[in-house]
Amino acid sequence: MTILTPGPTEMNPDVLREMLRSVNPDLDKGFFRVYNETVEMIKKLIKWNGDIYIMSGEGMLGLEVSIANTIREGDRVLSLSNGVFGELFADLAMRYGAKVDTVNSPYDEPFDAQLIKNVENYKAVTFVYVETPSGLINNIESVSERIKGKGSLFIVDAISAVGGLPIDCEALGIDICLMASQKAFSSPPGLAIIAVSKKAKEVIEKNNYKGYYMGIKVWDEYLKQEMFPYTPAANDILALHRSLKEIFREGPESVYRRHLASKEATIEGVKAMGLKLFVKDQAFSAPTVTAVYSPISPEKIINFAWEKLGVMLAGSWGPLKDKVIRIGHMGYTAQKRFVAEGIAALGAALNYNGIPANTVNALKKVNEVFDSYNL
Amino acid sequence: MTILTPGPTEMNPDVLREMLRSVNPDLDKGFFRVYNETVEMIKKLIKWNGDIYIMSGEGMLGLEVSIANTIREGDRVLSLSNGVFGELFADLAMRYGAKVDTVNSPYDEPFDAQLIKNVENYKAVTFVYVETPSGLINNIESVSERIKGKGSLFIVDAISAVGGLPIDCEALGIDICLMASQKAFSSPPGLAIIAVSKKAKEVIEKNNYKGYYMGIKVWDEYLKQEMFPYTPAANDILALHRSLKEIFREGPESVYRRHLASKEATIEGVKAMGLKLFVKDQAFSAPTVTAVYSPISPEKIINFAWEKLGVMLAGSWGPLKDKVIRIGHMGYTAQKRFVAEGIAALGAALNYNGIPANTVNALKKVNEVFDSYNL
């Protein structure tokens, strides 16, 4: 079995093995060091001077933490959206009583920064860097130029980005950067990673969020005593720690290059089989996940690949449900052998369903791309 | 290294090994079955006809879920408290705007049900079955008699109970029963398990909780489509599933008997070393954790045991900080070899710190108890 979905994805066996021990994270000072080392490695990876919290819960918890801690009933929020998660961010802000203005841009091209006006009137602007369901990477620099330094908090979902491509959070003026363990970190799902800037901390300080589990202020009170507000998901953190060590052992630049090669190889492979990318301009197809239009019901492809070949590909949801097939190439799976396995499975599934697709030629293209990267 | 703290605790290697695979819990229908099987096993264990949710997050998340979903600003809540978690429940209810009346009873004896009056006036009553920080098991039957059938929701933190002792949630009239993976299930920390009765569901339906991650209504919407509202912590659930299978393979009655033997052996062992139980009446010392007064700073004992012997014992917190030492005998560690290891480590740590303690005699007692149980 091989999991080639855009998170959770196939994991490095060394990362999995890291979980093979019992630990009491509340009492073992050694674990507190592991937690802190994990935080420090993430800071280095995303170029961050602020604080980072690793909460026990899925990435979605982080999105809600970012809203719950900063937004009060009646606050104005600007939601920039060109995908499923962009819309979900607006929904979350409304749940917390925000007056949300939404600027929408098409799903299949990068968010059009020209559409952003009057940023000054908002307490926070929400934005998604990589839209996993559509395999799209937004042009965050152009958006950042319109947001940063204008007073509102710039909250960015970078869940399917970090670990797979370079990000300079400080340069981009991000105030809250959201990550999750199961994407390009290739760790088990279960950890929401929340980077909070000094400016965001000031807003949080004044805000009146009363919850405990998601409370940044609660975390701060405990962390300063070298304690956690609840028992952390220790085994998941041990795995994430190892994943990050692997990233720095290889070197982030090499990791990012491997992702670019995997993206390009996946794209060339699917093109050679006559498929069309969902994202119009290949430059904005994400380095971590590729979405292609499916010539037949994606379910047929996915079921064949999983049941007959043990290779898990993904469909999508929202408006993309029944339209696209997605192949993840994140973290550990951003390698020739996984890309080739995904392309071979896709080709076989197409053929089985009566669709002509030249898999041999597609795999040749995959190899050519990796060869051109010397990978 | 051996973790003998009252959760997280040393785990069964078979449970740990269960985590050694990559899985996409959103797309793999096989995983949805694992989730459902896990839910069904928990239902059977706690005798439950209602719903069960396994959320990704620590046990504390479950406590907050129980309050957030049922309590509106201005609702009246009765907090029954004789320990650190009892007080925390009151704090959580206040965070969600409840008017909280608290009935306190001493930490070292079971909650005095005679103190409970006028239950009818409350939307919910919060109660802790086993107070982990003090190693106390409350007489839940006597409390239940005063609560059930009176209209208010009976919300019970059974986190350090379930898996270690029998509980009949239906007979006790519990409306929300809270559990966590890392206690007597001996699974990794990271899962909050929330059992919700039909009556509680009706209250939740009417209540206006707006959050997403902790929203029971959000979960219901997704579960009925055989989906999750966010990617579950798959590896942790695989481990929990295996833990439950182990409990049913052995048989719950045998598991509970093993806990009683471990409790009795621990108590006889510490008594033989001249230590005094924190809980006044041995009958109310929990089958999952024993707290004893420490003749010197608990830190000295704990540090020696951990640093020199690799055995992790626990101190406590709140008013019990610097007073007691705790030994967990939960799930996998409710066995002679772990109890003996804990007693031996405690004896050695006492001796090293100049306190006379007859470890040989204590271990003899431990063996006698397990012999009397034929274990």
Structural summary, described in words:
The structure is a homodimer of 375-residue chains. In chain A, helix 2 packs across helix 8 and helix 11 packs antiparallel against helix 12. Helix content of chain A is 40%, strand content 15%. The mean pLDDT of chain A is 97. Chain A is built from twelve helices and 13 strands. Chain A is globular and about 60 Å long. Chain A has a seven-stranded mixed beta sheet with strand order 2-10-9-8-5-3-4, sandwiched between helices. In chain A, strands 1-12 form a two-stranded parallel sheet. The first copy, chain A, is α/β, with parallel strands linked by helices. In chain A, a hairpin with a 4-residue loop joins strand 6 and strand 7. Chain A has two domains: 237 residues, Aspartate Aminotransferase, domain 2, CATH 3.40.640.10; 122 residues, Aspartate Aminotransferase, domain 1, CATH 3.90.1150.10.
